[in-house]
Predict the structure of Thiopurine S-methyltransferase.
Amino acid sequence: MTNWIQRWNEGEIGWHREVPNSKLIEFIDHLQLKATDTVFVPLCGKSVDMLYLLEQGYQVIGVELSTIAVEQFFSENSIPFEVFQEPDFVVYQSDKLRIYCGDYFKLNAKHLASVVAVYDRAALIALPTGLRVKYAQHLYAIIAKGCRVLLLTLNYPQSQISGPPFAVNQEEVLSLYENGFECQLLQCFNDLENEPKFQRENVDFIEKATYCLRKY
Ligand SMILES: C[S@@+](CC[C@H](N)C(=O)[O-])C[C@H]1O[C@@H](n2cnc3c(N)ncnc32)[C@H](O)[C@@H]1O
């Protein structure tokens, strides 16, 4: 089991990127957002994708286990914030952003009452098999009907290299979300040429997929 707190303590955050994810930019229209809508970013780390969403005028709610991640997000992006304690969470609040510092599985529908869309990059695929089922069921439980989800996944031969990120193929995405979500595959391609770590390990392929889900 990944010790995320230790990863943050030791700065082992190889998943973090300094620029917004190109698939968020390419496919954000599928979320059908209106100005000032609220987007939920589960397992948000200190992702600059949240900054991108804020810059587009949206409000953002994140959840993240690590205090280091949350505090680095605010300080590295020079965003003033207030902190307060709630049951189960330390809440970091700025003008248009709220990050719940604590466990995703403790969030409930009231925390996300304003949310109309979800952006999942490196959240589902950060979790091992059994937890992925729990993660998807919990997402269904805490978001409103009609909510759209932009989901980014990776798929590669899991026997050739271990996760996280874990391999999650199309069949698994469909089975995780078949009850309660419409599921549309927007794009899927092999991107081995841009993944030197996977090349070094002689992995046969690494597929990157983008889905748009809608809770019904
Ligand atoms: C692979 S990172 C991805 C972070 C972010 N989505 C990004 O794209 O940079 C996964 C993050 O999930 C956080 N995390 C793992 N389990 C969690 C949980 N149960 N509740 C909240 N955050 C969690 C970890 O601390 C880590 O920052």
Q: What stands out?
A: Residues 20-215 form a domain with the Rossmann fold fold (CATH 3.40.50.150). The beta strands are 38-41, 59-64, 82-86, 89-93, 97-101, 115-121, 148-155, 181-190, 207-215. The mean pLDDT is 97. The longest strand covers residues 181-190.
